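A note from the maintainers: we've had questions about how concatenated examples are separated. There is no special marker in the raw files; a new sequence line simply starts the next protein. For clarity in this README we add a label.
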Amino acid sequence: MPPFDVDTRSPTPIYAQLDRAIRASIATGALQPGMQLPTVRQLAVDLSVNANTVARVYAQLERDGILETRRGVGTFVREVPTPQAARAHRERDLRELIRRFVGDAAVLGFTLPELVEKLRNEEKK
């Protein structure tokens, strides 16, 4: 089982860090389809985080079609990701990219309308 690291000092919420870590482990093959994940309680203890946080991440990944829970057995990496799972992953990554981009640009003094204009100009090149 690949270790999932979370940094409690990071400004990124713990649930987002854990979500990203699980998705990355699946994308890199560290977690293979059909592999069982630790229980909510066990992962919460291992990471020293609230069990509700882990449960929230597992539930979201299940809604996205990435994980599946088998009652009384455990939580597993879904054998075949659904098309919805792939789309949800891409959309989530894009939202995060946009948040970082807008935030970094704001630090540099750019407004959202200025960013939109720059993006449109960049698209024309």
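[label: protein 2]
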Amino acid sequence: MTDDLAVDDDDVNTIDDEGQDDDEGNRLDGGTPLAVVTYLVHAIASEPDAVVINTEERSGSIRFRIHVDPEDMGRVIGRRGRVAQAIRTVVAAAGARDGVQTSVDIVDD
């Protein structure tokens, strides 16, 4: 028995006859890792409205500087830096998907 999955045409990137991706001009360099780091840090922080993520782009790499409420520093860094390292790993994987190197710094204000 097979399951048929319906795919909405709006969810699929289409390639025209010349091999051009129709959404190519709408993509932000590092958009995927930015979305991932934003989602993760907002989910971890108890004060997500206080989260500020600054980005710096340099020749094929993106640096994310995360600012959080002082009370959330421990939550975002984790014991022995395990949460921070996990964030860096996941963001690096998302960056690899976009073809960019990433670095994540958690900044103490």
